[in-house]
Design brief:
This protein has 228 residues and is an alpha+beta fold. The chain has helices at 76-87, 157-169, 210-223, and strands at 13-16, 19-22, 30-31, 40-41, 49-50, 102-109, 117-124, 127-137, 145-155, 190-197, 200-206. The strands form three sheets. Strands 5-11-10-6-7-8-9 form a seven-stranded antiparallel sheet. A two-stranded antiparallel ribbon has the order 1-2. Strands 3-4 form a two-stranded antiparallel ribbon. A hairpin with an 8-residue loop joins strand 3 (30-31) and strand 4.
Length: 228
């Protein structure tokens, strides 16, 4: 694509199916030259996974995350996120029947302030629900988390569309699970975004990188009325 083409007027764009698509959140699956340059797709590999037809025991290591989807450089972050989600009494998005409602979940992890936040947005028919759970405790030596606040609300259709647009912008289904080479970056937050749509599931672990913040902020925005 040349700079003179109409699509090149967009500040950032990705390649999907051979077509240029405007992107608000561009992840490492696309290399940009000065953000306005021509993108180059790194890989055609499929990163999402099929939803497992049956769920393993809730206490098992792979209840939330399939074995193939190792989160973190050594997989240890998967165990931490599992502890958070188990304490929050959250369902697994990676298993069940394809008729389960479409859902997306953000799990926030703050290394120096162990009070994780979980935000799950679910659409079932025409109803959009937002669940938010704030935990406390945790920290070093596998100390247990406890639930400190739990809220739920019915969200507007515009909330759902804004979140979906942000996920599409970051090309959620087409980026690798680990978008960073390290498990933690100083004292910055880490986030895990999961998604389930029909018979496919994906999880993306990301750090505080400017190109990704818009997507994370959409989860925070829809949870504001739930978790002020």
């Amino acid at each position: 694509m040349h700079r003179g083409d109409d699509m090149s007027k967009s500040p950032c764009f990705a390649l999907r199916g051979g077509q240029a698509v405007a992107s608000e959140c561009v992840l490492i699956a696309v290399v940009l030259s000065a953000c306005g340059g021509s993108p180059e797709k790194i890989s055609d590999k499929i990163f999402f996974q099929p939803v497992r037809e049956s769920c393993p025991n809730r206490l098992s290591e792979d209840f939330f995350f399939p074995g193939r989807g190792v989160i973190g450089t050594d997989g240890s972050l998967g165990s931490i996120y599992s502890r958070i989600l188990k304490t929050a009494n959250e369902p697994s998005l990676s298993c069940g029947t394809p008729t389960e409602p479409e859902a997306y979940r953000l799990t926030e992890l703050q290394p120096l302030r162990p009070s994780p936040l979980v935000v799950r947005v679910v659409r079932q028919k025409d109803v959009v629900r937002v669940f938010a759970i704030r935990l406390s405790g945790g920290g070093a030596d596998d100390a247990p988390f406890v639930t400190s606040k739990r809220s739920e609300r019915i969200a507007a259709e515009t909330d759902w569309l804004a979140l979906k647009a942000a996920l599409t912008g970051m090309d959620f289904w087409n980026v690798p699970t680990n978008t960073t080479a390290t498990d933690f970056v100083n004292d910055a937050e880490d986030w895990l975004i999961e998604g389930r749509e029909g018979d496919k599931y994906h999880a993306v672990h990301l750090n505080r990188q400017p190109a990704m913040l818009h997507c994370v902020k959409e989860f925070y925005r829809v949870s504001v009325e739930v978790m002020p």
